[in-house]
């Protein structure tokens, strides 16, 4: 729930490409040769003007001092508070009687197969010969506070449409409830449990700060009403806190973390076991919950609605539901995974699984994906056998890794980078450059192709995500949190932990052993990973007739006239100059007092 230091990125009711800025604000255009002396650096005011730090739900910004308190174990992390709450209430919750129904609260687990909390709820209901009731909360304010893309909301609602008939075959009702005010979600859930005389409710844990605090509160509030609230780990293969260094600390570097992750699963193979689908309800459930069976899935709330054309487009590109997820994964495992290691970085190759949208919405469990990939291999070892399969499993593991980071360093959910001292880097806030980046008209074809793919599909190839993020944060020196927010507002597969982790990697503010030397050269990236220019020509129509390697840099390779006639812009910056500027700016920023 809202707390003074829990500020996630938030979007206004309708996202805009370039956040408004006062006209009198002096914004650099990237040319530092003629800049006048600037006033003493003050990051806080401009952050608010650009909507990075908003006050809709969170009155105060997290301080560097409080970040350090988390790092020094001086204050408990929200996940630790939840664990302690669960432990402290265990005996009292165990004494609660059965009631007349059991509830499962769907969140990012919109599936029947391999769903831990749903399985536990079903087993509890079956053991007491009671009906199982499922619910889902539509929260416009949560969508706003989380910067959830309208395309993502649409995918969730369509996934619920696919889930409802599957539940009905088991005589299990699904109640989808719109709660306009997010702070009222706990009481509304409790009201429904009391109405249905349900004394047990199950859900899977989410790892963002607000959600962890909400589940701690729910555990206590439900107990006061005689309800046993049970939140369990399911969204990750290995729960946060299970993997520690030899010194007993949390890993902040992926490679040693991954080795520990693999070893832990090898020691505990049950982590990949399947949770059975829910059992069929008693026949009486149809009569008892007749009104719930007759309810329909609501439309998207006003602040996250798509146009008719967008709805049709996204439905065509992103079919929803767990059956689609399973089919897509099976096809990848049968046709593409063997060559994944060699082809995964080429956006034109169509060689990846493209299941991130299903992992994000929970129409597919990460555990299921790892298990099925292992089954397709010649060995039970996750890091052995076919290089394509083991490589893909290691990519899936990044999702776990970033959720572990989120749980242990919760301030990344509060407008702070993992390396919180990097808050003092002086970023640019150039409206024209940011708009050019958002719209895919920077004059760097690989960057523009990727951004146009994002704006059309709500999706971008992972290599391209790194390229455009590096370009925004290093070449344009624009505050990476603006890009992070733009991604979340447009990605159909938006996941806070993965998106934040990816931006931290590209902006060199995240979990990375090297401070700021990773600056991608967009031209070299383009030539290496789109060597024939197929990806560029698909998305940058102005360049579709450009032949050869001129497509990577039309204004430098003899097709300037064609590019100009077609309306393709010149590069808005010079990479070498921007690289030097970024290195100098990072160095200066890190020398500032971090107070």
How would you sum up the major sheet?
5 strands, parallel
| Portion of residues within helices | 40-55%
Count of strand segments: 5
The backbone outline, from C-alpha atoms, is: globular
Extract low-pLDDT stretches: 1-41
Strand order in space, largest sheet: 3-2-1-4-5
Overall mean pLDDT stands at: 90
Output the radius of gyration: 25 Å
Tell me the CATH topology of one domain: DNA Cyclobutane Dipyrimidine Photolyase, subunit A, domain 3
Concise structural overview:
This protein has 595 residues and is mainly alpha-helical. It is built from 26 helices and five strands. One of its GO terms (biological process) is response to stress.
Please describe the topology of this protein.
Blueprint: H1 43-49, H2 64-71, H3 78-94, E1 101-106, H4 116-127, E2 132-138, H5 140-145, H6 150-168, E3 174-178, H7 185-195, E4 198-204, H8 209-224, E5 228-232, H9 254-267, H10 284-288, H11 290-293, H12 308-317, H13 322-335, H14 340-343, H15 356-361, H16 366-375, H17 387-408, H18 431-439, H19 445-457, H20 462-475, H21 480-490, H22 496-507, H23 522-529, H24 534-539, H25 560-565, H26 575-591
Parallel strand pairs: 1-2, 1-4, 2-3, 4-5
Helix pairs in contact: 3-8, 6-12, 9-17, 16-17, 17-22, 19-20, 20-22, 21-22
Overview of the structural elements:
One of its GO terms (molecular function) is deoxyribodipyrimidine photo-lyase activity. This is Photolyase/cryptochrome alpha/beta domain-containing protein. Its cofactor is (6R)-5,10-methylene-5,6,7,8-tetrahydrofolate; FAD. It is built from 26 helices and five strands. By secondary structure, the chain is mainly α. It has a domain at 417-591: Orthogonal Bundle (DNA Cyclobutane Dipyrimidine Photolyase, subunit A, domain 3). The protein has a five-stranded parallel beta sheet with strand order 3-2-1-4-5, with helices on both faces. The protein starts with 42 loop residues before the first helix and ends with a helix.
């Amino acid at each position: 729930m809202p707390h003074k230091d829990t500020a996630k990125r938030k979007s206004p009711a309708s996202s805009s490409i370039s956040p408004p800025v006062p006209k009198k604000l002096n914004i650099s255009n990237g040319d530092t040769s003629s800049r006048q002396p600037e006033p003493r650096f003050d990051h806080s005011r401009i952050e608010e003007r650009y909507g990075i730090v908003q006050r809709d739900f969170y009155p105060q910004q997290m301080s560097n001092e409080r970040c350090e308190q988390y790092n020094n174990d001086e204050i408990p992390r929200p996940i630790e508070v939840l664990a302690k709450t669960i432990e402290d209430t265990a005996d009292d919750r165990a004494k609660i009687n059965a009631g007349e129904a059991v509830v499962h609260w769907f969140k990012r687990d919109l599936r029947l197969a391999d769903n831990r909390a749903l399985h536990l709820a079903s087993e509890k209901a079956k053991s007491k010969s009671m009906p199982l009731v499922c619910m889902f909360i539509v929260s416009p304010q949560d969508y706003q506070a989380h910067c959830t893309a309208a395309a993502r909301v649409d995918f969730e609602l369509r996934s619920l449409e696919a889930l409802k008939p599957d539940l009905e075959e088991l005589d299990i009702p699904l109640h989808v409830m719109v709660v306009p005010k997010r702070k009222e979600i706990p009481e509304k859930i409790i009201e429904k449990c009391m109405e249905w005389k349900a004394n047990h409710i199950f859900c899977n844990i989410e790892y963002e700060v607000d959600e962890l605090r909400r589940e701690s509160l729910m555990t206590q509030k439900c107990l006061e009403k005689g309800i046993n609230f049970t939140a369990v780990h399911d969204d990750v293969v290995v729960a946060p806190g299970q993997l520690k260094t030899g010194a007993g600390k949390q890993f902040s570097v992926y490679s040693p973390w991954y080795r520990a992750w693999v070893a832990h699963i090898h020691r505990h193979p049950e982590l990949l076991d399947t949770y059975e689908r829910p059992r069929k309800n008693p026949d009486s459930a149809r009569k008892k919950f007749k009104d719930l069976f007759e309810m329909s899935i609501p439309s998207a709330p006003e602040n996250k609605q798509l146009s008719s054309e967008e709805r049709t487009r996204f439905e065509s590109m992103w079919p929803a539901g767990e059956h689609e997820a399973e089919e897509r994964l099976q096809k990848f495992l049968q046709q593409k995974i063997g060559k994944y290691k060699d082809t995964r970085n080429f956006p034109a190759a169509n060689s990846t699984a493209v299941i991130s949208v299903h992992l994000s919405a929970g129409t597919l469990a990460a555990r299921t994906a790892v298990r099925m990939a292992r089954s397709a291999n010649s060995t039970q070892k996750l890091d052995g056998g076919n290089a394509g399969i083991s490589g893909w499993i290691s990519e899936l593991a990044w999702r776990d890794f970033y959720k572990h980071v989120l749980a242990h360093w919760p301030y990344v959910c509060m407008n702070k980078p993992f390396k919180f001292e990097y808050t003092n880097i002086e970023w640019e806030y150039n409206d024209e450059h940011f708009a050019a980046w958002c719209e895919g008209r920077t004059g760097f074809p690989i960057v523009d192709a990727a951004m146009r793919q994002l704006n059309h599909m709500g999706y971008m190839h992972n290599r391209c995500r790194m390229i455009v993020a590096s370009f925004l944060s290093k070449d344009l020196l624009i505050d990476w949190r603006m890009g992070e927010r733009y991604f979340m507002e447009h990605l159909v597969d938006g996941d806070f932990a993965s998106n934040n982790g990816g931006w931290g990697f590209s902006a060199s503010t995240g979990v990375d052993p090297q401070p700021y030397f990773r600056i991608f050269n967009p031209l070299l990236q383009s030539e290496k990973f789109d060597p024939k220019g197929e990806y560029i020509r698909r998305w940058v129509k102005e360049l579709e007739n450009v032949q050869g390697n001129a497509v990577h840099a039309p204004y430098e390779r003899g097709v300037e006239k064609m590019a100009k006639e077609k309306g393709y812009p010149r590069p808005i910056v010079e990479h070498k100059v921007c690289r030097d500027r970024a290195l100098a700016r990072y160095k200066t920023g890190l020398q500032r007092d971090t107070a």
